[in-house]
């Protein structure tokens, strides 16, 4: 019989080996850099035909580019900056009234938002979409998908940064497409709670079990900022965090493990313990990106952002004129067809 997790979209589309995850990131980053480079060259060429002063200063408002001087973000830079902004999601939540924090922005909502950010940047680049906007969009989307909807007017009102609902609606669609509209996230929290209930049927120290469970949730929260959700099943992450919490409290879980897994083949148990050790090492070795490093990367990001995403750039104006030209041509074609149709009717009823 198949494990339930293997039947989920999370397993089918967002579950990888370490090697595959690295390969996806490298390909996405290389493709993004090449594409942004082409847009930079196009922007620089278009800027040459625009006077620094004169007839169009209000239409074009982007810095003059020298493509040869632009330093693009490395993959490691994007990962570090992504990590920093993920850790800001709980801080954004703290700006809301306590009642909304408690009833709307649950651990599951915050975990979904963090996971959405991770998944989004697996297929996108910060040179197109700044994480400051994406984390807020993912939080708003996660509240909806986890049935903790906050009206957009209330959501915007308590944000630490200025934003309009139009921006959110545009980004929400972009994020949803990048997620393949797969919004359900299977978190370790539910598995940890199941372990908490199960341990009480085997072990008699209910008070210590409660403390272990509460402590394990701290490690689950920490694991959200790592790659564990891409690499391991939620039940494995939950079991690893419970084991870490028990170790820190000097509580021996061997009796529980021996009872629960005594019928499992040795090879399967060895594989499980190996994965638990790997998860434990990842969580213990995790260090958040420092603010000074995030600021330094952010400053470089500002200089290599895709000009196509800047509505005031020369390339954006060119794209707008091209769209308007296509619309005019389409309208002209429709009018011609309508005129011919009306003329044919007149011929019939002469």
UniProtKB/TrEMBL annotation:
Residues 321-337 have a biased composition (Basic and acidic residues). InterPro entries: Cyclin-like_dom, Cyclin-like_sf, Cyclin/Ssn8, Cyclin_C_2, Cyclin_N. GO terms for biological process: regulation of transcription by RNA polymerase II. Residues 94-177 form the Cyclin-like domain. It holds the Pfam family Cyclin_N. GO terms for molecular function: cyclin-dependent protein serine/threonine kinase regulator activity. Keywords: Cyclin. Residues 302-337 are annotated as: Disordered. Belongs to the cyclin family. This is Cyclin-like protein. The lineage of its organism: Eukaryota, Fungi, Fungi incertae sedis, Mucoromycota, Glomeromycotina.
